[in-house]
Amino acid sequence: MATLQLNSVVKRFDDTQVIKGVDLEVKDQEFVVFVGPSGCGKSTLLRMIAGLESTTSGDIVIEGQRVNDLGPAERGLAMVFQSYALYPHMTVEDNMGFSLRLAGVAKEQRRQKVLEAARILQLEPLLDRKPKALSGGQRQRVAIGRAIVRNPSIFLFDEPLSNLDAALRVQMRIELARLHEELKATMIYVTHDQIEAMTMADKIVVLQGGEVEQVGSPMALYHHPRNRFVAGFIGSPKMNFLPVSVVSAGGEGVDVRLPGGGTTRVPVDGRDCDAGESLTLGVRPEHLTLDEAGPLRARIQVIERLGGQTSLYVDMDDDLLTLMVDGDVTHRVGDEVRFNFEPRRGHLFTGDDLALESLERHPLASLTRQDNRAASDTEA
Amino acid sequence: MTTTLSTKNTPMDAARGDAAARARRLRGFGMAVLGWTVALVIFFPIFWMILTGFKTEAEAIAEPSLIFTPTLDSYVEVQERANYLKFAWNSVVVAFGSTLLALLIAIPSAYSMAFLPTRRTKGTLLWMLSTKMLPPVGVLVPIYLLFRDLGLLDTLTGLTIVYTLMNLPIVVWMLYTFFKDLPRDILEAGRMDGASTLQEIGYLLLPLTLPGIASTGLLSVILSWNESFWSLNLTTSQAAPLTAYIASFSSPEGLFWAKLSAASTMAIAPILVFGWLTQKQMVRGLTFGAVK
Question: What is the pLDDT of residues A180-196, one digit of tens each?
Fold first, then answer.
């Protein structure tokens, strides 16, 4: 059992508060991803959990024990750094066995543990090499191996894939997911890449300005963002935002007037809304569909063809919107297009950027990666 | 005739290539001439000193000439008048002793300044360096009196302490820049792996910055070896190093150039050989971190 709890954790550097009271619970064997733009405090928070940064106030609790005053090694964690931070003067084997050597583990036993980790990561042929003779992906695996050897209660990853090229990143992403399953360990992973967050996490923690914006499963964050920041940050390309005004609102939905005239009813809880109020409508690019009779119209500014899909960037009253449409559309730059969206795909945000709650929970919103696996197992 | 890389080149291209190559070669030649000139200018006094050591006193003050009959007379006389080995041993003890001591103090200080900086770290570093700008003679009297009272005058311990303090600012400063080049992550990874501060320094920091530490040490040895102000003022016979040995040939009966040169040659010979043997390490250390 390796659980982690953060209670009102605060970090202050001189006069600046960089972590502003974070509460969080990480369950045993959970894969939690901290995601947010650079400078949001996600790495600082991870380093505080690791013990590399002191905690100004609040409690960090690992497996029921408050660890604020324990040193990094005493917390029983292992960390994989963005720069890998391998010891350049040691061989792969010595790198991986360093923690055991410091702990006074006998050489034979040390070797056995290193070999075991090397087997999991397919590093056996590289054990005698120095880090500089390894490729980026291999170094990354050694860094992970070094963590595995420690047999930590929680693995911490600080943007581990950002120094790798795109292809390798995809491969390592899959490998990490596989590793998580094999080791059945609790993992906390920091990234600014929302795709990594979406694909790997059981639970995503979206941070901004030192505060938690939302915690939830990837699908919950995608379908039910709590506010405009999360809505814009999760999902790629970014969600489109349009100014709309309320025609009528109530418990069964909100009727809004779209730019260009039409009205549509978005199924969200509108009991706190008043007619005439200005709201922001959010629709994801993949949920906007070309429709000859659609209520929205705009002129195409840029076309990006990806093959299977095409991104249309359209200009609507000086707002640049993105549409992800079929790869085979024949439109040209300058064409006027009309488009539409399913009302249940719309999100409404109030003046202070909070989302109005959907009347219906998306069926996948509580899906976890375990559920994914169970489904594929039964298919097999 | 220069070779061109491709046979498809037109004569025009070839001509242009030739011109560029010629310009490159000319520049290389120019740099070589400049380099040799500078080296000769620097080396000439040493060369002349070595030469003078093999002359008679009469030849030494005569019209400068490269043609003379070499003689070891000066060396013999110098050797008869003073025990070279004793002075040399003193030099070795204080130069290496003070360097070792300085490193021992400077490594932890540079570590804390590089990896646990506070708001005052930069100021402290600058202040340390600023003490090097003070003329040593300014503190001669207090140090002399202190040494007299503590019984440190004319002792190897006393001279070693002074040299340590003299070199400490430079040693700390140099180590600080070398340590700063080491990615913090590596030490933090060590801390995650369970290393104590001492283990961090011993297993990670020192092996990884060895070239820098070595060149810092070498510089400190050379500076201590060549130091003459303190050695002349704080020692007389027992702890006098080679700089005092040279000086002893300059005053009483006027200047004897040949003997002075012979003594000087013997004084710088060990450090010259030492520098020659370690020059690779020196250059590597002094340019460490410049090219990643």
Answer: 988 889 999 999 998 89
Inspect the interface and report whether the beta carbons of B186 and A98 lie closer than 8 Å: no
Residues on chain B touching A48 (C-beta within 8 angstroms)? none
For helices A107-120 and A166-183, the axis angle rounded to 10 degrees is 120
Give the best residue of B185, B192, B210 to mutate against chain A (max A CB count within 10 A). Answer: B192
List, as own/partner pairs, every contact residues A329-332 make where C-beta atoms lie below 8 angstroms and the sequence separation is at least 24, other chains included. A329/A290, A331/A300, A331/A303, A332/A300, A332/A303
- DSSP 3-state of A12: strand
pLDDT score for B71: 86
CB contact under 8 A, B188 and A85: yes
What residues in A contact B208, CB-CB < 8 Å? 87-89
Angle at the Cα of B83 from the Cα atoms of B77 and B86, rounded to 5 degrees: 155
Whole-complex ipTM:
0.84
pTM: 0.81
Asked whether the beta carbons of A81 and A158 are under 8 A apart, the reply is yes
Q: 3-class SS at A298?
A: strand
How far apart CA A317 and CA A242 sit, in angstroms, is 10
Q: Which helix (H) or strand (E) holds B239?
A: none
Q: How confident is the model at residue B287 (pLDDT cuts 50, 70, 90)?
A: low
For chain A, the residues whose C-beta falls within 8 A of a C-beta of chain B are 50, 52, 71-73, 77-79, 81-83, 85-89, 98-99, 102-103, 146, 150
Q: Which of B285, B258, B254, B279 is nearest to B75 (CA)?
A: B258
Which residue among B185, B190, B199 places its CB closest to the CB of A83? B185
Q: Would you call the peptide bond into A237 cis, given omega within 30 degrees of 0 as the criterion? A: yes
